[in-house]
Amino acid sequence: MKSLGSIRRDFTPWKDPNAKPYIQFDKVTKKFGDFTAVNNLSLTIFEREFFALLGASGCGKSTLLRMLAGFEEPTAGRILLDGQDLRGIPPYRRPVNMMFQSYALFPHMTVENNIAFGLRQEGMPKPDIQKRVAEMLKLVKLEQFAKRKPHQLSGGQRQRVALARSVAKRPKVLLLDEPLGALDKKLREETQFELMDLQQELGLTFVVVTHDQEEAMTMADRIAIMDKGEVMQVATPPEVYEAPTSRFVAHFVGNVNMFEGKIAEQSANTTRITGPSGAQIVVENGGAAARADANIVFAIRPEKIRVSSKKPVDAVNALEGEVYDIAYLGDMTVYHVRLDDGQIVRASALNAARVTEDPLTWNDRAWVSFRPDAGVVLAR
Amino acid sequence: MSNIAVADAAPPPTAAKPFMMRLGAGFVSRLVIIVPYLWLLFFFLVPFVIVFKISLSQTAIAMPPYTPVLDFRDGISGFFTGFRDLNFDNYVWLTQDALYFRAYLTSVVIAAISTVLTLLVGYPIAYGMARAPATIRPTLLMLVILPFWTSFLIRVYAWIGILKPEGLLNQLLLSLHIINQPLVILNTYTAIFIGIVYSYLPFMVLPLYSSLEKMDYSLIEAAKDLGCPPTAAFWKITFPLSLPGVIAGCLLVFIPAVGEFVIPDLLGGSQTLMIGKTLWNEFFANRDWPVSSAVAVILLLLLIVPIVLFQHAQARAQEQDK
Amino acid sequence: MNTTWSRFNITSITLGFAFLYLPIVLLVVFSFNESKLVTVWGGFSTKWYVSLFHNQGLMDAAWVTIRVGLISATVATVLGTMGALALTRYTRFRGRVLFSGMIFAPLVMPDVITGLSLLLLFVAIGMDRGMTTVILAHITFTMCFVAVVVQSRLVSFDRSLEEAAMDLGAPPVKTFFQITLPVILPAIVSGWMLAFTLSLDDLVIASFASGPGATTLPMKIYSQVRLGVTPEINAACTLLIAIVTIGVIIASVANKRREVQRQLDERAAQRG
Questions:
Q1: Chain B partners of A33 at a C-beta cutoff of 8 Å?
Q2: Are the beta carbons of B61 and C126 closer than 8 angstroms?
Q3: Quick check: C258 contacting A, CB < 8 Å?
Q4: Is residue C43 assigned to a domain?
Q5: What is the count of residue pairs from B and C with beta carbons less than 8 Å apart?
Q6: Which of residues 142-171 of C touch A (CB under 8 A)?
Q7: What is the distance in angstroms between the Cα of A67 and the nearest Cα belonging to chain B?
Q8: Could you tell me the CATH number of the domain that includes residue C126?
Q9: Closest CA to A207 of A223, A192, A193
Q10: Contact C39, C27 (CB under 8 A)
């Protein structure tokens, strides 16, 4: 069986029909006055999963997280954690902990007191608290900062204190609200891997809210892409990228070219699509099954399109146009080609060699070509 | 779009139920509202009702010195028969005696002129402070606030020694041969103006400063860059943007100044007329409680519009801070 | 970016501060005057301070004032903090408009009206006037100032701190005392100081609310000022100014130290 992209590890409970769901959102709706933040949403998360809620601001992902933490109650529907209905349970009695976007470190307490705060609330004996705090400090490599106050730490250090504090109680689920949003790019990339290692080490279930698709793709086992309070797709990162089920998802994650068209002919393995100007595209079946003559969209990623000055002899799909714009980015070059029917196609080429023979330049005639299995057909 | 963005970051306040209340600590959190609410109802609002009631009574040589007393000494029926004795005679009296009308009018006029003067004095100070190097701004701010912490009475008292005919100002001007005769300032309206401007200056400077300090200086640079000369840039950019501060400052000066007692009493002498002083004399010297109550009621009515404006400004500033 | 601090700005600040401080400075200087005349310099002397401490009336009044100030400021701080919490935390409750009105109105209400209305209340409920009534009156008008000071801190309070505490298992009341209160404490302290100073300072409301035997220092000073300006009053005023100034300076120096330390810490943290 062919698989999409690369699979990180052998952890796929969602494919197992007998797997017990750990967190369940069951037809959950949340309204703030007239505004519906979350709309009749159902979602299942498994134990030890690293789950990401991805969406633009206002899509309802934070509200979802806050309902799980207990800061908001659903207007309708149920949330189950390990089989238990969470309705009516206040945040201070829920076995979940949250790492806040602002970190929310208590400014008047030292690092160790911040970390110990949750343990003290559950009445853990003092020696045990000390042991656990030391353990946590070691885990986030902040041993020598135990006596400092939050304002005496750098941004990255604060982030690690917040993390240590939220995992100190060994919650069943750790909720992370934009955990890396306040860090600069380089630190963010490092921390992404640290978070993944930590999750493996502690064996916790992580639910992370983010608007950064790269972050979600890097860290998560599965991603839920949200829009206007609804889940658009739940899938692994490679599936989300290579097999989006809707235009929204295809657009939201990465760059994409969309070709409008109608299904002209469907055979056992391939589908022929006719564009508005009569151009023909042949694609392999997969993606959405659609009736003949239905209006569909063919979506294809830029890196799967080749640009050449001559029509490639072996290409099944080749369209002619003119180079409209070129952006040289170092590792790759992005071409914008205006097809003869007026549509602009974005194609990116890896710069595998330092020098390019026969380079294309502005206003050159050019051909864009792609394989039949390079894109997907989307019905919605 | 923007309101949706807000909704995601934090749920809109109108929809969010009070957090603690929802979590079962209902009684404790209700106390937070109820205790100060009841206190203010009893010690702030109820007294006004009583003032209004007494303003409809008549003076009597008794204790309390008005009638009807309207209590339950004669039972319920006595309480209600007392109502028949209430009337608007005191208000009629206030309109017939030109003294009161003049006192109200001069109070408002003096407060208005003083407010404008305070603005003229305070604006350059606030502006200079807002443009001062950031390192010394906290010190300057403290220096403006410091006199506010020292007694109002003392600060007014300090001016007596300066403004007296044989006072320090006259001594200075005479020794410099600027004047030959001592100026009569104490016990005139001029002294009241000086006193109000001096006493209320911090109230004007602080809101002005906070609105000027918030302003982005690059706006002025942008205006200059677009060909606007400095003076025009001030009137077209700086001043309009500082208007919330101007309004807050003016209200903070005007409203208490109308009812001011200490300044006209100590600096204005017996010849000047202001309503706060009139009320005080009516109450303490004449022991006419009903009339002084009526004076207070009318003063309050006079100030209701600016007070409501002030509250609106406060509420709006609070919204913006959020 | 450093904005130019022009000559105009420096001049206006200098003149402004001269205007604010000169009268106070003169008052202090003449409290050390040998002569009985307040405005003619007759040589340095501290005799007025000596006679001040022998003036039993003034001393009694000072003691009353301090007691009134301490009690009323403390109660007002509790009530005002509650009021500030009610205003910022509860966006909707019955009578909220009236409540916020009653919080803001006393800030600008002329003293004569507040004083008169409180007196009439005390008479109506048959309460004997004395120190208690002055305290009640002072609590009422100073709690609103406390509420405004604390409220402005609460508005910028990061609510996620409280959510974090609850998330970690602290119930609401515990959260309030362990997290909210310590964080807003500086505002509460300055609210208390403001309430104390306002109480110390008040003449008009105290005059209405007090009865025989409860004369506060401002009332005493006022009655003496009406009789004429004396160096003894200057001396009393100087002492009051000195106490307040020292208090404010200590508070602000401590504040500044903390701020400087904080900046150093932050810089150190940035370096790693």
A1: 12, 14-15
A2: no
A3: no
A4: no
A5: 285
A6: 158, 160-161, 163-171
A7: 12
A8: 1.10.3720.10
A9: A223
A10: no
Q: Report which of residues B73 and C248 the model is more confident about.
A: C248
Minimal C-alpha gap between C167 and chain A (Å): 5
Tokens of A205: 């279930």
Contacts of B23 in chain C (CB under 8 A): 166, 171-172
Residues 53-112 of A with CB under 8 A from B: 57-63, 71-73, 90-91
Residue among C92, C160, C161, C168 with most chain A CBs within 10 A, to mutate = C168
Q: Do A151 and C265 touch (CB under 8 A)?
A: yes
Question: Residues of C numbered 12-41 whose beta carbons fall under 8 angstroms of chain B's beta carbons: which are they?
Answer: 12-13, 16-17, 19-21, 23-24, 26-27, 30, 38-40
Q: Does A101 touch chain C (CB under 8 A)?
A: yes
Task: Residue window 1-40, chain B: list those with CB within 8 Å of chain A.
Answer: 1, 3-5, 7-9, 11-12, 14-16, 19, 22-24
For residue B45, the 8-state DSSP code is I
- Cis-peptide, bond into residue B64, ω within 30° of zero: yes
Report the complex ipTM.
Answer: 0.86
Structural domain range at position C187: 63-227
d(CA B21, CA C85): 13
Are B10 and A62 in contact, with CB atoms under 8 Å apart?
no
For the full predicted model, state whether its pTM sits above 0.80.
Answer: yes
DSSP assignment of A13-64 equals GGG-TTPPPSEEEEEEEEEETTEEEEEEEEEEE-TT-EEEEE--TTSSHHHH
Q: Dump pLDDT digits (tens) for C179-230.
A: 999 999 989 998 998 899 889 889 999 999 998 778 999 998 888 888 777 7
A59, A111 in Cβ contact below 8 A?
no
Amino acid B23: pLDDT:
44
- Which SS3 state, helix, strand or coil, does residue A1 take? coil
Q: State how many domains chain C has.
A: 1
- Rounded to an integer, what distance in angstroms lies between the CA atom of residue A49 and that of residue A24? 13
Nearest partner of B202 among B149, B144, B146, B242, judged by Cα: B144
Q: Using CB atoms, which residue from A32, A71, A90 is nearest to B7?
A: A32
CB burial readout A344-359, b (16+ within 10 A) else e: ebbbbbeeeeeeeeee
For residues B232 and B250, what is the distance between their CA atoms, to the nearest angstrom? Answer: 23
Find which of A100, A142, A148 to mutate to test the C interface (most C CBs within 10 Å of its CB): A100
Give helix B89-96 / helix B98-130 axis angle, nearest 10°.
80
Asked if C270 reaches chain A (Cβ–Cβ under 8 Å), the answer is yes
Q: Say which CATH architecture domain B88-321 belongs to.
A: Orthogonal Bundle (1.10)
Most confident of B116-120, B267-271, C154-158: B116-120
Are B64 and C123 an interchain contact pair (Cβ–Cβ within 8 Å)? yes
Q: Is the distance from CB of A221 to CB of A204 less than 8 angstroms?
A: no
C272 interfacial to chain A (CB closer than 8 Å): yes
Number of other residues whose CB lies within 10 A of the CB of residue B157: 23
Rounded to the nearest integer, the mean pLDDT of chain B is 81
Is residue C219 assigned to a domain?
Answer: yes
**Cβ proximity of B5 and C45 under 8 Å:** no
The ranges assigned to domains in chain B are: 88-321
DSSP 8-state code for residue B234: I
- Does B68 sit behind a cis peptide bond, omega within 30 degrees of 0 on the bond before it? yes
Token readout for C270 is 């940035």
Burial (Cβ within 10 Å: 0-12, 13-18, ≥19) of residue B143: middle
Domains delineated in chain A: 13-95+171-250 (3.40.50.300), 255-378 (2.40.50.140)
Closest CB from A31, A63, A90 relative to B8: A63
User: What number of other Cβ atoms are within 10 A of residue B260's Cβ?
Assistant: 28
Residue C242 to residues A366, C193, C219, Cα–Cα distance (Å): 86, 15, 20
The tokens for C107 are 């800030």
